[in-house]
Amino acid sequence: MTIITAATAADIEPIVDAWLLLARDQQRYGSTLKIEENRTAIRKEVTHLIVADNLFVARREGELCGFVMFHTQDGVYSESVSRGTVTNIFVLPAYRGEGIGSALLSKAENALYEDGVDLVTLEVLAENVDARRFYDREGYSPHRIEVAKEFERDNNSREHR
Question: What are the protein's UniProt keywords (predicted)?
Fold first, then answer.
């Protein structure tokens, strides 16, 4: 049986290791995040989210099998809705297809709802068709599209066109 609870300090290193797996996996979809170079930054973020009660973990037989990170959004601009963001959700490959991702997402959504959030957003890499299909099944639809342009670099020119 899978149990979802708030993360604790004892979960920091297992979550960091799982996040590094997530970052590595996302590279095949075009993510530019470096892996080991972000270990310290993600450890700080995980610690902050645990203190803020914005990180849930899924466990089976005491072992971490997934996590979800989220927060209410404090923007510079006033908006007509209160917004929450799911920043990361990850289920270890051995546990996928068992409803753990849906349960983690639901737990985060419920926490955000209890915090007064009206709208939940998240980002997904355009090339990650499986993740996009998952979020579609969970009721998410495109809200804002990010586009990117990569410059070609050569050592002889400073022009980018």
Answer: Acyltransferase, Transferase
